Amino acid sequence: MAASWLKDAVFYEIYPQSYCDTNGDGIGDIQGIISKLDYIKSIGCNALWINPWYDSPFVDAGYDVRDFKAIAPRYGTMEDAVELFKVAHEKGIHVLIDLVPGHTSEEHPWFVESGKEHPCDEYAHRYIWTENAFCRGDGMPFIGGEQPRDGTYIINFFKCQPALNYGYREIHEPNWQMPIDAPAPLATREALKDVMRFWMAKGADGFRVDMADSLVKNDGEEKLGTMEVWKDVTSDVRKDYPDMALVSEWNNPGCALNCGFDMDFCLDWYGNSYSHLVRYYQMDKDGNVTTENSYFNHASDNDPMGFLKDFLPKYEKRGEGLYCMITGNHDCKRTSFNLCEEDRKLGFAFLLTMPGAPFIYYGDEIGMAYRWTPTKEGGYHRTGSRTPMQWDNSANLGFSTADTKDIYLPVDPNPGKATVAAQEADPDSMLNHVRKVLALRKAHPDLGNYTPFEVLYAKENDKLIVYKRGEYLLAVNPGMETKTFEVEGKYELVHSFGSASLEAGVLTVNPRTLTIWKPVK
Ligand code: NOJ
Q1: Above 90 in pLDDT, residue 521?
Q2: Rounded-to-integer distance, Cα 362 and Cα 14, Å
Q3: Which residues pair with 248 in a beta bridge?
Q4: Cβ(149)–Cβ(129) below 8 Å
């Protein structure tokens, strides 16, 4: 049984280094997050996901963890973290932190020990070491020649991120690949449980789990080994913390939501459902958008089928869980890169009234710009979505009082840039639009997280989708042609973004409209 608060959870993702700096050192901190909780609540969010805040050399922005049980000094202290949990809870906000189970930093003491010529038994196989320094990785990326140990090791992502050893489902190299129930992989699992219990005891409400599918190697499409590990880990930790909430970076509800996760993300992977909706474009070699063909681009001919063909089969495998829509995240370009504000407003109205717990990436609620920025901490093209939050028109847009040259990433110099302060005052702003959508979601349980989604009409070469959420009837038409649909039964209007009418059984959906109706009983 999932934690009951997930029923109406609406998440806000915070990239801590870029949110709010309270000590004037140019980088965001935990006290900064605490100071903005009322703002976050005012949007309509009641839960947070905070990107990694652990001690790290920051080669991959903190996804290279050096100590799972220490807060990076640049963000504050363990006391600050505990205070954040406490203050958030007092305000009715739940907090998920990022858990990175698949790898550590190469500076993690476990890895340093395992790379010694004669490592101690406890850590000798915490990572996946091959049998000698000239051995290849059985198809997986590997590094050799860097450590005194006579072996190469498998990496999970960047070179700085050696893969933790949860074992292999199919063993090709018995000299160094271990089954998932061998003592060393089992010990890795216990170490992971220990980290989870540590943070739950401090007051966390659960975790966003990085690369959740990456634990067991040679695991095939079905991921049976990884699922077995997660079933054990989640059920064991839930014995102590039954309300722990977990969201996986997996984009595979059939696996994730059947092995202990409560939520899985619908991710921005090119060609999948999310990208069809709001990020379906091509770029030239200089990074300029050449063809923009997202469904929510009013001028595109992208019909709903690309979205639905990928989304529905995954959604249908969600079991008791939540398949969650995102406005964006720290790994993809903000939708402001390729969609105009009006198209984004409609896109967000759709995403934020879909099933699953919605996740809003900080700054998306004001339509912050994606800005090409030199890479920082392993961000590369992602860096442009990680720039400081834009609060007001004061120095550094209210993000930090530090000297401008010392801030984490440059703020948007564009005179027309979005800020919270300016948008508060404008009833038609993106911010107030997002607030309106989330208020509707809250007021109508049929738009809620667990309420089913059912398509009544969607066809090739037609922009219209007519669908149900519970008993509610919705239609979205992001295109420029008016659409009609014959409706049975009596409905009354809940709200239209854009304009629509229902007369004599015909629903008319004008261009650039999302309309919501409820049955007349
Ligand atoms: C996914 C995270 O979202 C991304 O930012 C990170 O670089 C990789 N996993 C590696 O941990």
Answers
A1: no
A2: 6
A3: 209, 264
A4: yes
| Ramachandran angles phi, psi of 237, nearest 5° | -70, -30
- What percentage of the chain has pLDDT greater than the value 90? 98
Contact in structure between 215 and 183 (CB atoms under 8 Å): no
User: Rounded mean pLDDT of the chain?
Assistant: 97
C-alpha 210 – ligand 1 centre gap (Å)? 6
CA distance 311 to 300: 20
**239: Cβ–Cβ under 8 A, 6 or more apart, which residues?**
none
* pLDDT tens, residue by residue, 379-421: 999 999 999 999 999 999 999 999 999 999 999 999 999 999 9
Predicted confidence at residue 271, as pLDDT, reads: 84
pLDDT digits (tens, 9 = 90+) for 248-273: 999 999 999 999 999 999 999 888 99
Residue ranges in 316-389 assigned as alpha helix (H): 341-351
Residue 213 Cβ contacting ligand 1 at under 6 Å: no
Report whether residue 268 contacts ligand 1, using a CB cutoff of 6 Å.
Answer: no
Confidence of residue 284 (pLDDT cuts 50, 70, 90): very high
- In ligand 1, which atom is closest to the CA atom of 331? 5
Separation of alpha carbons 340 and 347, rounded Å: 10
- What string of DSSP letters covers 167-202? -BSS-S-TTT--BTTSHHHHHHHHHHHHHHHHHHHH
* CB contact set of 171 (below 8 Å; sequence gap of 6+): 177, 178, 179, 218
d(CA 321, CA 249): 14
